[in-house]
Amino acid sequence: MSAAPCSAGRVAVVIPTFNRAGLLPRAVDSALAQTAVAQCDIIVVDDGSSDDTPKVAARYGDRIRYVRQANAGLAAARNAGIAATTSEFIAFLDDDDLLMPDSVERRLVAFARWPMAVIIAGRALDRTSEGELRPRPLAGVPLEAPFDFVPHLMEDNFVCVPTVMIRRAAVERVGPFRHGLRRAEDYEMWGRVATCGPGVILDAVLAEYTIGTHERLSCDLVAMMDAKLHAHHLLRVSMTTPPHCMAWHRGLVRRLATARDLHYRSGSFSTAAGYGVQVLWHAPGRPAWEWGRTAAAFGQAAIAALTGSGSSARTKG
Description:
Elements: E1 11-17, H1 24-32, E2 40-46, H2 53-58, E3 65-68, H3 74-83, E4 89-92, E5 98-99, H4 103-113, E6 119-127, E7 133-135, H5 150-155, E8 165-167, H6 168-174, H7 185-194, E9 199-210, H8 221-234, H9 242-266, H10 269-282, H11 288-307
Parallel strand pairs: 1-2, 1-4, 2-3, 6-9
Antiparallel strand pairs: 4-8, 5-9, 6-7, 6-8
Helix pairs in contact: 8-9, 9-10, 10-11
């Protein structure tokens, strides 16, 4: 790191965990190894684990704050961590991810440099189940400069959880993570926070993000797309300016089309047809091949209904 001035505020590093006693130390150790650890309040939120998580947390003594709650899900665990401190900034770290040693410091420096920013994030490395590290794709967004996250988030969630730091003031303005969301709760939260002001993506690797483990909710692409679509609908109430509303609508059509295709490939033809109808309702001027895909989904759904084969009815979340 350079000798750039660092924001004087404290940072809550929120680490939710559930039955990951074997993985948790790696995440906690990376938080304790921060160059700006003196400014960090490290909060481990045990979401009702039945393994040795309490014993693992106890080994760290007063270097961390341990919060235990009845199992209520990831969103509730993150909210408990936020509520456990009054730190000006909040960073997030899942129990199977880790932070680069200067991750917190870089983001604090960025907040000092761009005081108008409400969210700072950066690049990440994807760690596969085989231990291979790959640069996480990050294309189409400005780097090292404040910009409006909302239009980009309406297209896709480009913000990787362990790279995120947000201002508490923004959370107090938009409210906590939605408890009812079991997937895509991070995407929905970033969308609301981004309506409070600009964000910055740093051109630096801030974290390692674990992919490819069966435990990760995001492994089910169909279910994750349905969850993102549900979160997208929830974000509609936050899109109060015309540019944001237009970006929301474009993103909705894109997500509906993706959901249609994913359900079709998975054999859920009636659900695919339903999504196809929504695509054409929201954007009737779509190309002819879009109408053809929806017609094909209806045809396959009818065949499945007549023959009793395939998966013709899958309920939307």
